[in-house]
Amino acid sequence: xxxxxxxxxxxxxxxxxxxxxxxxxxxxxxxxxxxxxxxxxxxxxxxxxxxxxxxxxxxxxxxxxxxxxxxxxxxxx
Amino acid sequence: xxxxxxxxxxxxxxxxxxxxxxxxxxxxxxxxxxxxxxxxxxxxxxxxxxxxxxxxxxxxxxxxxxxxxxxxxxxxxxxxxxxxxxxxxxxxxxxxxxxxxxxxxxxxxxxxxxxxxxxxxxxxxxxxxxxxxxxxxxxxxxxxxxxxxxxxxxxxxxxxxxxxxxxxxxxxxxxxxxxxxxxxxxxxxxxxxxxxxxxxxxxxxxxxxxxxxxxxxxxxxxxxxxxxxxxxxxxxxxxxxxxxxxxxxxxxxx
Lengths: 77, 254
What we know:
Chain A is an all-alpha fold. Helix content of chain A is 22%, strand content 0%. Chain A has helices at residues 14-25, 50-54. The radius of gyration of chain A is 19 Å and the shape is flat. The radius of gyration of chain B is 18 Å and the shape is globular. Chain A binds chain B through residues 9-12, 15-16, 19-20, 22-24, 27, and chain B through 35-37, 40-41, 44, 137, 140-141, 144, 148.
């Protein structure tokens, strides 16, 4: 199951963070499972590194599998 | 033999008025809680309680058979018609007092709803089945907060102990019984309130111990709310807020 970042919040500990996440971010039936991570445990890319990290892949369209003919019987991929 | 409909009505009003009055009280925090997360969490709890009220009072109105709705019962009765326990109508006080009241209620609510899922009345069992899941979360959350604040700073501990000292004398009313309860027990509709006390004491005792809080001494118990004999002065003030719109603009709807 793929998890997706939905937001950040304050909490005194990990258990309360789960509860707060449940109350703040799953009010409209969006929730199936919750992961919480303390902000200091997240290592992130710097906005300044965007160029060297991500731009090189922009020109490599051949990495998309759109050049293959998919047989109809395979259905949605 | 069919159960006395008047007594069933009384039982349903007691259940529905507890959640209605507490739901309204908790909603008073909306936009005022100390942090955003608690504000939303309290609003969620209030909405759960109002949702439960719609079921209890909706069924009550049907049993009453006078063509009224849950809304009529909520907004067009006066203080002396309410059957909630006194505990839930007490003012919010500070955040700690609100959460202590919530915990003392949630503990009872989670236990009785579990038992009501086995009610001989299928409607009661159905309502309890839905509400029990909400109550299980409520009590988990309020326990954590009571523990966090009780076993917190010197200031938070002092406030939580003061809240417990003030509120605990109102807990006994939850376990009192009268002819209505006897009839419900007899028909297998609801458990004898007194039979819930051991589980309640165990749950509350465990949480309070972790919270480093002491139960106040003395066995005196305030009562009168669930029988309608008397309410505190606070209920009338609350109703002037809660019922204002329907009183000023009868029949107003969305």
